[in-house]
Amino acid sequence: MAEDTTVTVSPDTSTTVITSETTTDTITISDIGVAGPPNVLTIGTVTYGDLAVTITGTSPSQTLNFVLPGATSWTHIQSSPSASWTITHNLGYYPGGVSVVDSGGNTCLGDIQYISTNVLVVNFVAAFSGSAYIS
Length: 135
Hints:
The protein has strands spanning 6-9, 15-19, 24-28, 40-48, 52-58, 61-68, 74-88, 98-102, 107-108, 111-114, 119-134. The protein is rod-shaped. It contains no helices and 11 strands. The protein folds into 3 domains: 1-30, no CATH class; 39-69, no CATH class; 74-134, no CATH class.
């Protein structure tokens, strides 16, 4: 047969009494303290790569940093003629697919130099405008 249990909470919620047919337990919160300052959470860096979120700093001043999954491709438009195109693609890796076409739609070859996982430079023998497709 189940016991009857009674829970009584004091008006100031600092004491709780739990009573059953065989036992009585009292829980007392003696000092709940004073609330501290509110937390200030700011957005820090947002980069591309493997998904991750980190919190830096200590309360009450903390920073939330994101690493987001990168896009899988990027189209660069080179509107002014140049023999050297600096392309910031923000893919977060060294892309293997780099295709360049001039403004007339002709495929062009150039020397690719990887500056970082997000930037590359393509050098050509002559200046021209067009588009680069990165994947």
